[in-house]
Amino acid sequence: MTFAETEKTELKQRFADSLPKEIVAFLNTDGGTIYIGVNDDGSVCGVTNLDESLKKIADILESQILPDPRQFVELNTKYIEQKHVIEIKVQRGFDLYYIRKYGRSSQGCFIRVGSTSRSMTEQQINLAHNRFLDSKVKITEIASRIKNPTFQYLKLLLTEKGLNVNESTFAENFHLLTSGGQYNRMAELLADKNEVSIKVVRFKGKNKSDGIAIRNEYGEKCLVVAMKQAYDYCADVINETHTSFTNGVRNDKPLFDRDAFREVWFNACLHNNWADGTPPAIYIFTDRMEIISTGGLPANLSKDDFFRGVSKPVNEELARLFIRLDLMEQTGYGIPLVTERYSRSAFEFLDYFLRVTIPFAFEIEGDSAEDNSEELHSKLHSKLHSKLHGEMPKSAQRTFLAIAENPNATIEDLSKNLDISVRTVNYHIALLRGKFIQRVGSDKNGHWEIIKQE
């Protein structure tokens, strides 16, 4: 067995007073292993006073570190080269850990940086402490700011999935009430009308300083609907395809991988720190897309577990709803899929945010984005001769135009012509039906008609 100091491994010749600091640092970062009885160069020197050292380590874990870290620490002994070595395996903890004697101060709080343990700054301590507090506050126990919410959008989505909606027990069945019987923050997020606004901002260049080309707001409605609308805009409008021919063979190159983006975006909406209230956002530059969510890495999850696809949702009841609506799966394949397509470097863990960067396969025109948007609105005007475009969900506009041009188009026709899934077409039609379009005749032999706007 060979030893070397790394960000996850600490070597010590003998028991030292600095051991509590090393344990705290691993607890507050991504975990690691401490070996006592190993020289800095990796050679084994052994521990002569084994029983006394084990007793001192047990005392550290029991009385010198807060909160109680013992469930995250495993103490072992190894016999290597006829010498005893103590192995202390530390997992990432569920809280901000510190040396009891010094409290939550720079003298008591440590993190692992490279192969060393360093004191946390006051700002880092405050951010970490607040993050762990927020992670313990469940959105199902925070009272809604909306007193009488309605849930027609959510009920429609559930019904489309074949799920039974019992009006008398709806709020209880879908965990929309606090333990005291009030509507909660989750209910607020899923209500037909709320104050949640998801921003999708398209910039004219590679930096925010280059100016904004388009700023779309998806929100003040059911989170699931707003989330899907933001996805549809990026996946169906922004995601251009470059076509080339090599030796007579057609090659289509999309701007970005739709599946990877879907996983990143839906996970950002699910794992966002909704207790804080700040919604996730999408920033589109000419060479990349950035997805920002608040909360950073979940408090009870290490980076290694995160990249392996281990899922520990911050918002557990919201996760169950997403699964029932087929917005995500329980297999945990999403993050491995993204890292396979774009590598781990796509993820940036900040103190209080998580930023995922999806690089584009080719650079897009930033300055023309505003003009393209106006062109789409103009086309809607010519179809309806009305103010319809100001009210219609942006994500459904392309589907609406396709129906206006070919009222006899089937769901499969629309899916093929627009290069979007049948599920997305059905979702767009659900948004349009009744106000913008109506079906005349049967599904098989009928046709679509545009509803004239006053």
Task: Give a description of the structure.
It contains 15 helices and 18 strands. It is of the alpha+beta class and 454 residues long. It has 3 domains: 9-120, Methyltransferase, Cobalt-precorrin-4 Transmethylase, Domain 2 (2-Layer Sandwich), CATH 3.30.950.30; 197-359, Heat Shock Protein 90 (2-Layer Sandwich), CATH 3.30.565.60; 369-450, Winged helix-like DNA-binding domain superfamily/Winged helix DNA-binding domain (Arc Repressor Mutant, subunit A, Orthogonal Bundle). The strands form 6 sheets. A 6-stranded mixed β-sheet has the order 10-9-13-14-16-15. A 4-stranded mixed β-sheet has the order 1-2-5-4. It has a two-stranded antiparallel ribbon with strand order 3-6. Helix 7 runs antiparallel to helix 8 and helix 8 crosses helix 11. The N and C termini lie far apart (79 Å).
